[in-house]
Amino acid sequence: MKLRLSILFAFIFLLQVCGFSQIRGGFRPRLPQFDRGTYYVDPLVFYDIDSLKPRLDAFVELPKDNLLYTKKSGTYTNSYEISLTLKDSKENVVFVKKYNETTTYTESDFKAEHKKSVFYLHNYCLNPGNYKLETVLKDITAGKEYPKTNEITVKDFTNRTVTFSDIMLLAEFSTTSEGQKEITPLISNNIFGHPKFHIFFEAYNNTAAAAYGVYVYKVTDHNDDVIKQGVLNYALYDKKTGMFENIIIGNPFGEMFSPEDPDIKEISKKEFGQCKITITDKSTGEIMTEKKIFFIPGKLPFTKHPEMGDR
Question: Which of 31, 42, 51, 123 is at 20 to 30 A from 2, Cα to Cα?
Answer without folding.
Answer: 51
